[in-house]
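Input (structure):
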């Protein structure tokens, strides 16, 4: 069997046709066996080909978690198109850059995003190169097709229902491109992380060899599928014959309800989600006896969360990974999750992880160094950025920019990020992107953005501003950012100082700013 991610679904449908593959979290939503889910993906594959989608064409998916997203992902994989998952929290300008940079020519979007899509469409060639617009509403029954679809868009449901359920001809495999997932860079512009059918397959294989996942498990998916932390686990669960219970968006009360109703055995949640779930006042009333573990990553998991969930009878396994690694890098084992609380464990199976100094020597226990990762699931490249690719992947190792320490037993603990990334509610927020926007205000001389600790979000952005002359109201700065940044990237507060601290070479000393403004951030 070739490594084609679309074939993973077809093979699972052949082996386990009557096992539930997809369960929608909304009452009355789709409940599909693997046979039905694969047939639906085939219908999408055929109508995509009828629209003129060819091998190598880029197709954007701007949808909340839904059966249409899942069908589209596996359908496009089968026919050899390249998927561009789009963060639906971005504003039109941000989406426009990604669509143009990737060369996306077909956009499938949910009715929830009809307004921003109309803005993109009306912007013409200046905004996008998209030539086909497909409105995905009706199949999940959440949004009315008739009420939210503009004349320029075709109906996903109509195209889907008229198409064949037969297996399409496979258009790509192995080292052919599968998807481009955009992640912000320190330059302020997003970078497209390119994964192939092979890198995605090896990510799934290494998860299967490392995580304690069982055939016919029931996996709850609350993270958005535009994240590698959602897309890769979904692929792995289908690979292993697990039922995926899909949440459209995270809600802490609904999460506990689903854990009971759907007999959930495993799930993944970022620390902010764990915190929100623990704030549900009557959580004890929900039966969670089948839930063996919750994997948590995106930012270091506070030890108090691990201990609180342990008292509640649920094991938290800290995971570490990147978009560039297709997800896996390190995982704490079930046996060590409590004993080594605060550590992200050791390297995944089929994965090598080292912590090195500036000369690429392995650091001694307790000494900080940069995390570097090697494995067949490492990205192929950054889309159209050969210099950035060469800087990140050297001699087969991916340099993460993350700082960690290793203890005497080889357990890795992530300490900091050399690239100053902020993780707010599980979302990656890069200060340079916010700084570029704020510097566009005519009264701003300098700005540096740092993260402040937030009980609710983990971290929240603080903008430290130097005014050109006089004073500026903080609300003026925040108002300037509205419409230019996604809501989760917006600075939560603004501080004003006379001078930004810098080293002799001119680099901003954000360490000093963190000491000066330790927080906590306003929630």
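Output (sequence):
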């Amino acid at each position: 069997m070739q490594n084609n991610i679309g074939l993973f679904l077809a093979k699972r449908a052949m082996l386990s046709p009557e096992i539930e593959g997809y369960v929608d979290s909304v009452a009355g939503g789709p409940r599909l066996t693997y046979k039905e889910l694969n047939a639906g993906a085939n219908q999408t594959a055929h109508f995509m080909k009828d629209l003129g989608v060819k091998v190598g064409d880029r197709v954007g998916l701007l949808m909340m978690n839904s059966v249409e997203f899942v069908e589209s992902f596996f359908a496009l994989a089968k026919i050899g198109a390249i998927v561009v998952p789009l963060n639906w929290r971005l504003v039109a300008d941000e989406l426009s850059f990604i669509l143009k940079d990737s060369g996306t020519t077909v956009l499938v979007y949910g009715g929830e995003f009809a307004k921003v899509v109309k803005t993109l469409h009306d912007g013409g060639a200046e905004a996008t190169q998209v030539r086909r617009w497909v409105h995905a509403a009706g199949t999940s029954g959440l949004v009315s097709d008739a009420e939210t679809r503009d004349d320029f868009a075709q109906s996903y449901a109509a195209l889907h229902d008229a198409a064949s359920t037969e297996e399409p001809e496979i258009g790509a495999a192995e080292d052919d491109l599968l998807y481009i997932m955009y992640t912000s860079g320190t330059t302020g512009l997003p970078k497209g992380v390119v994964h192939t059918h092979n890198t995605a397959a090896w990510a799934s294989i290494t998860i299967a060899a490392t995580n304690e996942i069982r055939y016919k498990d029931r996996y709850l998916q609350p993270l958005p599928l535009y994240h590698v932390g959602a897309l890769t686990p979904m692929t792995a669960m289908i690979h292993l014959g697990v039922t995926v219970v899909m949440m459209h968006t995270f809600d802490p009360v609904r999460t506990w309800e689903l854990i009971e109703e759907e007999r959930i055995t495993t799930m993944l949640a970022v620390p902010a989600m764990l915190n929100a779930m623990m704030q549900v006042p009557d959580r004890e009333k929900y039966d969670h006896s089948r839930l063996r573990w919750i994997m948590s990553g995106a930012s270091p998991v506070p030890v108090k969360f691990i201990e609180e969930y342990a008292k509640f009878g649920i094991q938290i396994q800290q995971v570490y990974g990147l978009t560039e690694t297709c997800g896996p890098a390190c995982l704490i084992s079930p046996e060590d999750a409590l004993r080594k609380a605060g550590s992200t464990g050791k390297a995944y199976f089929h994965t090598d992880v080292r912590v090195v100094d500036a000369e690429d020597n392995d650091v001694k226990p307790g000494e900080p160094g940069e995390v570097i990762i090697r494995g067949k699931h490492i990205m192929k490249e950054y889309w159209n950025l050969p210099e950035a690719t060469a800087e990140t992947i050297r001699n087969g190792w991916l340099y993460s920019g993350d700082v960690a320490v290793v203890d005497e037993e080889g357990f890795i603990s992530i300490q900091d990020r050399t690239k100053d990334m902020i993780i707010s509610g599980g979302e990656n927020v890069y200060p340079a992107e916010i700084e570029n926007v704020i510097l566009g205000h005519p009264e701003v001389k300098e700005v540096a953005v740092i993260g402040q600790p937030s009980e609710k979000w983990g971290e929240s952005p603080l903008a430290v501003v130097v005014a050109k002359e006089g004073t500026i109201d903080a609300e003026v700065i925040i108002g300037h950012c509205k419409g230019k940044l996604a809501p989760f990237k917006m600075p939560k507060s603004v501080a004003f100082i006379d001078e930004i601290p810098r080293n002799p070479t001119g680099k901003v000393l954000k360490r000093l700013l963190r000491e000066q403004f330790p927080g906590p951030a306003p929630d």
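Notes: The chain has three domains: 5-14+31-173, 203-417, 422-516. The domain at 203-417 is CATH 3.40.50.12780 (Rossmann fold).
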